[in-house]
Amino acid sequence: MSKVIPSPIYAVVLAGGSGSRLWPMSRQQLPKQFLNLEGGRSLLQGTIERLMPLIEPPQVLVVTGEEHAKGEAYQALLPYRTLLEPVGRNTAPAIALAAAVLHADGADPVMVVLPADHIIKDVQAFQASLKTAIQAAQDGALVTFGIRPDRPDTGFGYIKAGDGGGGTLAVERFTEKPDLPTAERFLREGGYYWNSGMFVWRVSSILREIAQHLPQVDAVLEEIRGAWRAGEDVAHAVKKHFHRMPSISIDYGVLEKSHNVKLVPCEIGWSDVGSWDAVYEIADKDAAGNVIQGNVTVIDCRNSLLRSGKRLVAAIGLEDIEVVETADAVLIVKRGASQRVRQVVEALQQRHAKEHLAHVTVQRPWGSFTVLEDEDNGYKIKRITVNPGGRLSLQSHQHRSEHWVVVSGTATVTRNDETVVVAKNESTYIPIGARHRLENRGKIPLEMIEVQVGEYVGEDDIQRYEDSYGRQQ
User: Fold this and answer.
1) How far apart are CA 291 and CA 113, in angstroms?
2) Omega of the bond prior to 178 within 30 degrees of 0, cis?
3) CA-CA distance, 205 to 226, in Å (whole number)?
4) Model confidence over 311-340: pLDDT tens digits?
5) Which candidate in 62, 70, 239, 409 could, as Cys together with 446 as Cys, close a disulfide (CB 3.0–4.6 Å)?
6) What's the rounded Cα separation, in Å, for the pair 163 and 281?
7) DSSP strand pairing (142-147 vs 261-266)
8) Sign of dihedral through CA atoms 96, 98, 103, 105?
9) CA-to-CA distance for 234 and 224, rounded, in angstroms?
10) pTM of structure
11) Side-by-side strand order, sheet with 291-293
């Protein structure tokens, strides 16, 4: 009898979400998966690190939005192999595309699919569950991880599981996020698990199921494959065809219709970090039940989350309250109501405010800038940091001039046909319409103050002629 050779194992990490319920920390241009919510590492880093040594970083493919990879999340994504979506189309198209990429060389690996924005406290238990899931996937099953519920939570989908063996259970049905009476009934009846959004399967298995249950996704995927066979690179083919994908989740599109789904029941200290309530639940608390993070002074407060990102937060007599401060916004919400934070984001969108888009300090591939004074009076003041080796795009502005004062490091400045070096305590001027570029050719970060003056000083007043990071106007 020939010996069955185990398939290679790859991880696909989905990192394209917006994380609106964790506003004001999570913003559209830098959502929660790229933020540090569990110590000194981002949620994305934590997701990849807890796979090791079962799956090493070279076997990880991060699927994310093109706007993240070429914008604020550039540095966070730099260590990893990435697959860029030109537009968001939910989980089924993202998973289908990743499976096709992994299948392109004819191999049939096991594919572990993980959201980038979850926290798992018990890594050893997670890895044991992952091994069980991988074994079931080797045998052809579509495997999901079910979290044993400890409360009737209406923020999660539920999975009803039946009998099983070998560490897995048969999946009987999926239920979308229920109302509270239904969730309470699920807990009384037993056999229900929270849908974690984590999956394991062979690439061939999920592609076969997608072809059967999601023919529209499969049709666009075949167009992308055809472009690859014709010699187009992956990025170009995806950019050309991916926008025609329907927007649909893998749960609704495939798993709820398949008869080949198994569940691994888990108790792994899991949280989807889907709200400030969830952050409170998983965080360390003081004797009064408070979660204190940052520059916070507390007097007579109980069971509250108080987080400062910049300024001092002083709280007196609060109970069951969550306060989150950033440089440009303060959120105050009663515990238990933080799922409604997304309504704040929707309200900001409706009035065309910018506080849901980006932070005061904005990350860029070359470094960062911090807005010190905003644009209401025809000028804007920024602090700009350019990392060693970083260079801004060759660009011009039609509505503003710029004055640059170097306060640390040395700037190499291109202005039309001249190139000058500007040292600490020196300055230079960029007229309206001049083609210019700022570079740091030194060994230490370049710090400078920029004063913009003009009839319009918005970030979209930029014409790029050349860019080292693949960004366009």
Assistant:
1) 31
2) no
3) 21
4) 999 999 999 999 999 999 999 999 999 989
5) 409
6) 31
7) parallel
8) positive
9) 8
10) 0.90
11) 291-293, 305-308, 321-325, 330-334
